[in-house]
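Quick start: what a row looks like.
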Amino acid sequence: MARYQRQMYRVAYRLTGNHDDAQDLIQDALFEAFRNFHRFERGTRFDRWLYRIMTNRHIDRVRRQSRVPWLSLDQGVEAGDGRDPGWDVAADGNDPADLLVDEILDERIQRALTELPEEYRHAVILADIEELSYEEVARVLRCPVGTVRSRLHRGRYLLRMKLDPLNSCKEAE
C-alpha cells in the first residue's frame, strides 16, 4: 500500500480540493479495498482498482453532501441568549504536507480543476493527470468510452477557457 500512497493522495487531492478531505477519502477507499479485497480480480492493475474505489467513494460523498444541509462557519451560531458567540477556529499551521502540496500543485490549475463540473473533473484527472487510457477511465467511472471522450473534450475546453486569459476576455465580450 505504501507504494501507492503518493499517487492516491495526488488523485484524492485533485478530486476533493483540500488536504483533509483527501486524507479522509484515502482512508475510506483503503478501508473499502480491504473489505472487498476478495473481489479483486487477479491480472488487473491494483492501482486502477484503488482509483475506481476512491472515485466511487468520492461520488458517494458528493451525493450524500448534496442532501445534507450545511452550517456556514462564516454565519456563526446564536447562543441561547441571542448573541453570537463566534467561532474559535485554530489558525492554519505550517503542516509539511500542505506546504508540499502548495509547492507541487499550481494554484491556478487546481482552482480551475475544482471549478469544473464533477463528471468532467473526474475524467480529466484520470485521463490527463493520472494518464489512464480511455478504456480504463470508462471502467473507473462506469460509463461508455464515448461518454469519457465527450467529458474529456468538454472538460479540456472548459479548462482552456478558465486558464487562458485571452479566451476569458473573448468570452466576456
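That is the whole record. Residues 87-91 have pLDDT under 50 and may be disordered. The radius of gyration is 19 Å.
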